């Protein structure tokens, strides 16, 4: 395991072996690397193929807001005046 610096960004290099897993292939992610990027068993990740490289990225959690949560954040300081977008189109006819 090596920690490198490229263009002022730290990155970790780990040698691992590709294994057959059913009809697919899999790799193991070392525990310390998984902890560093905050993933665990069951975490969802994005798998990207780019220019002959495979990039794994943890999926950002999807935050679901309720209308009540959003309206609770409205106050006179962040409210704007009504905006006139002009004449409506034929979609209202």
Automatic annotation (TrEMBL):
Domain of life: Bacteria
Family matches, as Pfam families: MazE_antitoxin (PF04014)
Domain SpoVT-AbrB as annotated: residue spans: 19-64
Annotated SMART domains: SpoVT_AbrB (SM00966)
InterPro entries per the UniProt record, alphabetical: Antitox_PemI-like, SpoVT-AbrB_dom, SpoVT-AbrB_sf
Name the record gives this protein: Antitoxin MazE
């Amino acid at each position: 395991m090596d920690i490198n610096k490229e263009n002022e960004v730290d990155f970790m290099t780990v040698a691992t072996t590709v294994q057959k897993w059913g009809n697919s292939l899999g790799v193991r992610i070392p525990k310390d690397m998984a902890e560093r990027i905050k993933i665990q068993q069951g975490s969802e990740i994005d798998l990207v193929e780019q220019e002959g490289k495979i990039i794994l990225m943890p999926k950002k959690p999807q935050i679901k807001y309720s209308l009540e949560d959003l309206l609770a954040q409205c106050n006179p300081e962040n409210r704007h005046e009504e905006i006139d977008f002009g004449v409506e189109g034929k979609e209202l006819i």
